[in-house]
Amino acid sequence: MPRIYFKTVDRYVEFAEGEEVNVLRMAIREHCDVPWQCASGNCGTDRLVVEEGSENLDPPRRRERARLGDLVDEGYRLACQTYTRGDVTFSWDPDQVGLDDEPGSSDGGGSRAGWAGTG
Amino acid sequence: MADLMSHSEFRVALEEAFSGTMAKDASFSRAWATGKLHKQHFVHWATNHYHYIGPFGDYLGLMYANTPDHARDAKDFLLQNMYEEELSDDRHTDLLIRFAEACGGTRAYVQDRNNAMPFAKGMQGWMYYVSGRENFVVSSAALIVGLESQVPSIYRTQYPTLIDKYGFSEWEAEFFDLHITSDEIHGERGYQIVLKYADTPELQQRCLHYVREAADMRFAYTKALYQTYVEPDLGPWVEEDERQPALVG
Ligand code: FES
User: Fold this and answer.
1) What is the value of ipTM here, to two decimals?
2) Residue B202, in any domain of the structure
3) CA A115 – CA B245 distance, rounded (Å)
4) Residue A78, ligand 1, Cβ within 6 A
5) Closest residue to B181, CB basis, from A39, A112, A119
6) Ligand 1 touching residue A39 (CB < 6 A)
7) From chain B, which residues contact A within 8 Å (Cβ)?
8) Do B185 and A22 touch (CB under 8 A)?
9) From A38, which residue of chain B is nearest by alpha-carbon distance?
10) CB–CB of B185 and A81 under 8 A?
């Protein structure tokens, strides 16, 4: 069975052969503590570093490319926007916040902090 | 009376409750996915869809009012879902109208209730009924597990076809792209709420009943779209893919 390795919390999540699964959905389902807020490619809170298995991921679509910009080339993906059909390993900073909420971001930060998901 | 199921048993039962009649297998969805529809069919689809899901914030608001204070995580989930439908980004119904306009429709046509099928109005009435009258766990099962969690499986087949076969831009088809992913998460959180709060055999069975009913409603509605708008142009639906389930839809 293929599996997602959520390295930061040292958890493996298996899924059925032949399926394509959404990475954030699997993380929420199995309580893997991936930070997230909007689930729609807006906030960037759920950006993950793809450590291995990028060939098993679907290519980023418009919303993800727009949100991540150059981070795509640095190996980042948004968990909510990403589907995998095979083994893959992800890591992240457990304390990361939305890209517009980071200190020094143009948005000033914190505008949607109250809507943080509990996933 | 059935016994109380464990979370994993109940989850499997919920998944099985709608897997036999998924809207992605209905004739209209199949004609869409195989590139057979015309732009005018999409205008009708968008118009009916507008009247079916347009009041989704209302449905969620009714469910919110029916959810007790002790289920704070469920209340917060409903509120967040409402916010995401209406305010966090482009309003979802505006994205739907953007798609209709790309197909030659107008906002006024889509929003006119007289242009929707009785099936769409029936779907809307059913959703008002369930969200307003049922226990919040049961309405979550019906609307979020039974309906919303089906959306990614439908749009993941239809979205690439819109871009590759029908020639829409990613911007024109953004409604679908957004729902592929957001409804994965809404659907999953819906499961978590239902698994947690359906804590008696009676509630579990009632959830299963409404998930089946939701799937049947959506399937019948999707089938009616084909019969009303497509069949006069293309004739009765004939499935060419042998791997498809043999559904009369
Ligand atoms: S959760 Fe906001 S971009 Fe994925």
Assistant:
1) 0.80
2) yes
3) 41
4) yes
5) A39
6) yes
7) 73, 76-77, 80, 83-84, 88-89, 152, 156, 170-171, 174, 177-178, 181-182, 184-189, 191-192
8) yes
9) B84
10) no
| Better-scored residue on pLDDT, B91 or A52 | A52
Cβ pair A41:B181 closer than 8 A: yes
More confident residue, B150 or B71: B71
Query: B165 in helix, strand or coil?
Result: coil
In a domain, residue B243? The reply is no
Name the residue range of residue B85's domain: 7-232
Evaluate if residue B243 carries a pLDDT over 90: no
Q: Is residue B144 part of a domain?
A: yes
Superfamily of domain A3-91: Beta-grasp domain (3.10.20.30)
As a whole number of angstroms, the distance between CA A41 and CA B68 comes to 31
Is ligand 1 within 6 A of the CB of residue A44? yes
Is A46's C-beta closer than 6 angstroms to any atom of ligand 1? Answer: yes
C-alpha A80/C-alpha A66 separation (Å) is 14
Amino acid A111: pLDDT = 33
Question: Which CATH number is B35's domain given?
Answer: 1.20.910.10
Nearest by CB to residue A28, choosing from B152, B177, B188, is B188
Cβ distance A49 to A56 under 8 Å?
A: no
Instruction: Write the CA distances from B188 to A26, B6, B119, B192, B195, integer angstroms.
Output: 9, 17, 27, 6, 11
Nearest CA in chain B to A118: B73
Nearest-5° angle of CA A106, CA A110, CA A115? 130
- pLDDT of amino acid A118: 29
d(CA B33, CA B24): 9
**Beta bridge partner(s), residue A21:** A84
Q: Where are the domains of chain A?
A: 3-91
Helix runs in chain B, H state only: 7-19, 27-33, 39-53, 56-66, 72-86, 92-102, 107-111, 118-133, 136-139, 151-164, 174-197, 201-225, 231-234
pLDDT tens digits, residue range A61-93?
A: 888 999 999 999 999 999 999 999 999 999 999
Does A22 sit in the ligand 1 pocket, CB within 6 Å?
no
What are the tokens at A106? Answer: 């143009």
Nearest chain B residue (CA) to A31: B192
